[in-house]
Amino acid sequence: MKFDTYFTMNESEAATYASEKLAYLFADDFSLSCKEIGDGNLNYIFKVTDKRSNHSIIIKQSGPVARISDEFKLSPDRNRIEYEILKLQQQFAPGLVPKVYAYDPIMHCTVMDDLSDHQIMRRALMEFQTFPKFAQDISDFMVNTLLLTSDVVLEHKQKKDLVRNFINPQLCEITEDLVYTEPFNDNKNRNDVFELNRSWVSEHIYDSLPLRLETAKLKFEFMNHAQSLIHGDLHTGSIFVRQDSTKVIDPEFAFFGPIGYDVGNVIANLIFSWAHSDAHQQSDHKRWVEETLVATVDLFITKFSSVWDQKVTEVSALTPGFKEYYLSQVMSDSAGVTGLELCRRIIGLAHVKDITSLTGNIRLRAERICLTAAKEFILERGKYCCGLDFLQTFKKAEAAFAREDYV
Amino acid sequence: MKFDTYFTMNESEAATYASEKLAYLFADDFSLSCKEIGDGNLNYIFKVTDKRSNHSIIIKQSGPVARISDEFKLSPDRNRIEYEILKLQQQFAPGLVPKVYAYDPIMHCTVMDDLSDHQIMRRALMEFQTFPKFAQDISDFMVNTLLLTSDVVLEHKQKKDLVRNFINPQLCEITEDLVYTEPFNDNKNRNDVFELNRSWVSEHIYDSLPLRLETAKLKFEFMNHAQSLIHGDLHTGSIFVRQDSTKVIDPEFAFFGPIGYDVGNVIANLIFSWAHSDAHQQSDHKRWVEETLVATVDLFITKFSSVWDQKVTEVSALTPGFKEYYLSQVMSDSAGVTGLELCRRIIGLAHVKDITSLTGNIRLRAERICLTAAKEFILERGKYCCGLDFLQTFKKAEAAFAREDYV
Lengths: 407, 407
Hints:
2 copies of one chain form a homodimer.
Chain A: H1 11-21, E1 32-36, E2 43-50, E3 56-62, H2 78-92, E4 100-104, E5 109-113, E6 119-120, H3 121-126, H4 134-147, H5 156-165, H6 169-178, H7 198-206, H8 209-224, E7 228-230, E8 239-242, E9 245-248, E10 255-257, H9 259-279, H10 283-311, H11 322-347, H12 353-356, H13 360-379, H14 387-400
Antiparallel strand pairs in A: 1-2, 2-3, 3-5, 4-5, 6-8, 7-10, 8-9
Helix pairs in contact in A: 4-10, 9-10, 9-11, 9-13, 10-14, 11-13, 13-14
């Protein structure tokens, strides 16, 4: 079979592809089977297994349109971006991304480690599992991939070459629309608001002029601030976990943007898990999420500062007071994005299971807690200095919607 | 003669080049002469004249190293950037840049209108000439080239493609070093401080920690804020003037950076002209410069707001209050850059004739006025809202160094 012209493969074609192109990844006497296991929006994920050795790999192929809606037409070149980013992330944060073996610019696919011995973090958290290494691992991942690709560390010309290489107009447009625009502008074609919260969202979100103004500022910050090579979609569905391991996947939204975009996504998605555990009255898990969230933020800050002290040689960045200024901007951006992600997953087109799996007044309350906290994160984003600051905002929102009033 | 391999031409070779490659720009019976007239740092400027018709054109060729110092090795690809920018600027600000006829990617040269009927603005101002159209023209140029290339106006994907196309690592590095770093870090190899001001500069500039911190913040803003396609070197040596015409040249430093970088360069270089006229007690010219500076800033603000109202359709940018926020950030950046340019031309490697043509205590005083104003522009950059705010800062500095104490 020839793979010299791009087409989207089915399972049997992906198995043929693996046996013809990737034989070197298997033992000599391999016998391959293949299953498409993708549940994301943009790509096809083929798990190819050698039935004899049980060894498996993943072939990730980019389709020409998003699976969620063919309204999003996307260049399959994002697969190149993903491959190159995974190589870079492996270099900056060894062991925290899947190993990649090959990239095929014709078929627009990347071949990487199968992570079937890990779970998708969102699902695992919804089963009230806990992951003791998570705060350590994700803070390592963020500090190393973000600080080390900024121009406080990289030679400036080299950094600009990377900026050019990772300009990502189509994927950024999705974020600009879905995260920064539609949730605050009553987009009737694409927003998807839970029925019991429609009038509340109108009054507290759509009609809030201060909120619209601050989100507009954050949008132009996202579009124009080429700070670091960010992952760009760092929610708990992009993280694979095991008790002893954390792997970040799916960096196809990556580009040079504000560091706080990644940090805020992690925080917001932990808050969704917290709201889910709260709804299910899983107080132990809820407490674990709270502790993990606080630890993630605090470890991020501590490690950021310590890696800065070790790695930064840029003469202006060494000016006394500059590190503290830089980090305070990162924390402000992180808080703003926490609020944006909380809003867009409840109001916008793309939801999260943590919330949509809830029903009736329990979902109503979970959403209102998240949205109330979100407004504070966005409007008062300059005040966040540590993990506890983040915790206090959603604990305060929780107190405002006492459980007994909704059950 | 063959021009199929790059070499830096001499006058006679440039004349041959014109007769072989550019015959279509001259009358049939042309007879060409050529003179190299460059006085910039980076390029060779050949004026090629048809002796019969007296019609002339300019061939601008990029050299492989800067003329000021072969320490700066530069890719001649900057010539492509300059050609493409001139085409874009012609589209956005018709009549305010020289017309370009051809670009040769092998010889790294661009062919354009000869502006010999114009004068270089810096020299003309040093002769106390005035240019009644300047404030109108330069504010038109800045508003149209800057606002219309930002993503409040351009479609976002198109803007990102332009950002990629105009990433300019080498020329940006020159600015980062010469403007943002060395003047504030006592760079003994490259700074060039007037002897009578050495200890004053040490005390008031090098030893000012707040100044170093604020300039570090501005440096990362310059490097990371891909706001608009800026000219990048908009001083009065890059502007050709006639009583009825203004032409901006030399955009080879262009890239997507903060709007305020261009605005601040214009303001600072008007202040140098003001200091020069002050030193020569040319009070009429001094007053004209003051009026022109105030008018330039105020026309920029008025036109920026009016072009915004006509052209902006971006939904988030239309949020009430966002235009005012955006413009206030631009003014703050402009004030900061005004201060940086004032400092770097007095302390750093590359000076301006307005100041270096002065001597003794007169130069001492001119420099102290500029540097004192510069500190206020940088440290209090958030307070500048109109032309008068800028004027007051250097009038206040002037008052602090009363003429009679120095003559």
